[in-house]
Specification:
alpha/beta; globular; 4-stranded parallel sheet; about 10% strand; about 120 residues
């Protein structure tokens, strides 16, 4: 990923902070979203976004969960056929035990073949 691309994340976070009436954030990446997780998390490091109540995001945007303390509704959107790391998403969710989440839509994938009885 080139430096100009990575510099977009701090600007994106700055924009989010400047929108005090923003309550719903929907993100749809247009590239391979695996590249976005780390730069987004870095840009959010010292930021809180209490105005955001609803997130509609791909799994790689999970760092937002830790920075939106007033979240009530979280919906993860997954591209068909793309693997996700449910453990990482769940870790982000549990990082804020004072969460106000009332609705959570998260795909959980169990790899392998579960035994049936």
């Amino acid at each position: 990923m080139d430096a100009s691309f990575e510099s977009a994340f701090p600007l994106f976070v700055e924009c989010l902070q400047s929108l005090p009436n923003l309550h719903t954030l929907e993100i749809r990446w247009s590239y391979n979203d695996d590249y976005f997780e780390e730069p987004l998390g870095t840009a959010l490091k010292w930021v809180k976004l209490p105005q955001i109540k609803t997130l509609i995001i791909p799994p790689s945007a999970h760092p937002l969960l830790e920075h939106c303390p007033e979240l009530e509704d979280v919906n993860f959107v997954v591209v068909k056929g793309r693997r996700i790391r449910s453990d990482v998403i769940l870790e982000s969710l549990t990082s804020n035990w004072n969460s106000k989440i009332r609705r959570l839509a998260i795909p959980l994938f169990l790899w392998g073949n579960p035994s049936r009885k």
